[in-house]
Amino acid sequence: MTDNRFFNRSELIGILVLAVFLVVVLPLTLDVFRLNLVAKYLTYAFVALGLVICWGYGGILSLGQGVFFGLGGYCMAMFLKLEASSVENTKIQSTPGIPDFMDWNQITALPFFWKPFNSLTFTIAAIILVPGIFAWIIGTAMFKRRVGGTYFAIITQAVAAIMTILIVGQQGYTGGINGMTDLRTLKGWDIRPDHAKIVLYFFEVGCLFVCIMIAQFVRHSKLGRILVAMREKEDRVRFSGYSVANFKIFAFCIAAMFAAIGGAMFALNVGFMSPSFVGIVPSIEMVIYTAVGGRLSILGAIYGTLLVSFAKTSLSETFPELWLFGLGGLFIAVVLAFPNGLAGIWGDYVQPRIDRLIASRKSKPDGWTDSSVADGAPAE
Amino acid sequence: MFGDYSLGDLGSIFVMQGFAGLILFSVYVLMALGLAIIFGQMGVINMAHGEFMILGAYVTWMTSNLFQSYMPSLFGGYFFLAMILAFLASGALGMLVEWVLIRHLYKRPLDTLLATWGLSLMLQQAYRSVFGAREVGVDLPQWMLGSLHVTDSIEVPINGVFVMCLTVLITIAVAYVMYKSRWGRQVRAVVQNRIMAGAVGINTEKVDRYTFGLGCGIAGIAGSAFTMIGSTGPTSGQLYIVDTFLVVVFGGAASLLGTIASAFSISQTQSTLEFFMSGSMAKVLTLLAVVGILMLRPQGLFALKVRK
């Protein structure tokens, strides 16, 4: 029964279609502004991907993914902000060489926890490790005591609330409600012009595929099977001699790290980071991306993220009143009618038809995959 | 941090901050009572609880406007009618929501969270469309204004005292209904063992619906009381929802006494800290303490010992 490959044939096709869609179709059809928007949406796809592992497979609903997104984003933003606050750039301040918001808050020296962020190596390590360790602490404290389910969801939500209040309250150290704005260069390379945005987009898509591969690996390994078994019958897995808590901690940590990578990408692509991506509301929105895409589907989560974010941008621009009704209705509809989201609809209705189509047209095996799947998947 | 105050001043500060904490405590208790019934007893995570509370607040606001324009002579007593109306409105909406939404989701508690979050978004937008985005406040009747002078340096506002008395009365009423009445016994039976409760002839669906309605109705009363001490906007409910959940979880989900004890400790800690540091840091420290204690003692302060 064990097959050690990362993916079976249809998953491989799905990943290739997504790759073609993200690497070829979107950059060719969209202008730089729209492509940058897609890059912004894709940063949430990292979070959604983590939630598929943690929530879909592990059954652990975390309502605090915004915290990890924020930790990753703030680590990246701190590095970029320090680079943007060189002594020449900030010579009009009363203390040159520190970020502008610190100067506004009468702080005269760089706080100690900012200092290591002068190094890019440290920053990259911190983006992964800080949220990972934080998730490990929370996970260990909760799962070792067999706290799970709704309690865990509420505690993570409280953590998200604490984090937002803390960031907003400690204005001098974090930039407060405005966050860290005016990020300019990465190691002297300007991240603001159009060509930089395109490079960053491709870099982000590359990272996303690395994460997809990791998720696929987890899912197809024995680990993934234990996660599913744990979700379905926790006690039986425990009695079989597995340490349920450790597997849960692992799933939670990997989701946190994915979210953090997404946050770091956000800071790079969008050029700022603020507490409005940390709190309760964004954290729940990230869960809904996963739910709409399909909590059991790695690719579905990415399509779901793109679709919901796109709908949010376009609807909230034109019909701001309708948008909240739409989003609320979407939550309810997904939960009541389509618990497996878009991927469920795809698997239940579209896939069988395609299979029948292939069966009837065995003579023409080419020419159907790319067009029908690429058109079909994002639009349901 | 105590250096600049004399002992007498400190005493007064603690009493006055303690009293501010008691008002916060009243709001927490009123909100948490409804939630303790819905979450603690039924296991439904109702993220729209804050919006049910705000519905009560808006009903109170409308009633006060009605009295002001048509029966100014009776204005002093509008609040009692408003409270009943708030209870009925929120309770009726709650029963409708239970029938449409919640009853399909009893087996999937995490999904109730998502669905009710969607509901809360829709309700917020509905309030914004109907009542406008600006916050509204009610005019208090004459007898509720002013404050009582206890000593020279200590004075307490009358509306606060009123809200506290109200809280005590409602808590006693809820405790009576849940633990002494026949209906409360049915609720607890359904919660502890749904199948057996059904087998002995309890209509579990009906009990579920009325329980949910009761929890939402109490949230409506909480909203009504909330208008006494603050103004109401479409998103005011969201500010309290996480705190309220923490109160219920911290207290031990199925225990009314635990809910009250945890509401008391959380509100007192927060309001006492608020005097010595910024409001946001006070809140962070309080919430951190609660989360920290919950990590050490996940079952909450008062755990109900039930064989699962």
Question: Can you tell me about this structure?
Answer:
Chain A is mostly helical and 380 residues long. Chain A is built from 16 helices and 2 strands. In chain A, strand 1 and strand 2 form a beta hairpin. In chain A, helix 2 (32-57) runs parallel beside helix 8, helix 5 (120-143) packs antiparallel against helix 11 (244-270) and helix 12 (280-293) runs parallel beside helix 15. Chain B is mainly alpha-helical and 308 residues long. Chain B has one domain (29-296). Chain B contains 11 helices and 2 strands; from the N terminus they run H-H-H-H-E-E-H-H-H-H-H-H-H. Chain B has a two-stranded antiparallel sheet with strand order 1-2. In chain B, a hairpin with a 5-residue loop joins strand 1 (147-149) and strand 2. The model of chain B has no long low-confidence stretch (mean pLDDT 83). At the A-B interface, helix 6, helix 12 and helix 14 of A face helix 4, helix 9 and helix 11 of B.
Read across the widest sheet of chain B, the strand sequence of neighbours is 1-2
Enumerate the spans of chain A where pLDDT stays under 50 for 5 or more consecutive residues. Answer: 367-380
Model regions low in confidence, pLDDT < 50 over at least 5 residues of chain B: none
Distance between the termini of chain B: 48 Å
Radius of gyration of chain A: 22 Å
The overall average pLDDT of chain B, rounded, is 83
Q: What is the strand arrangement across the widest sheet of chain A?
A: 1-2
The percentage of residues in β strands of chain B lies in under 5%
Q: Kindly report the average pLDDT value of chain A.
A: 84
Order of helices and strands of chain A: HHHHHHHEEHHHHHHHHH
Q: How many E-type strands of chain B?
A: 2
Termini separation of chain A comes to: 31 Å
Strand content of chain A: under 5%
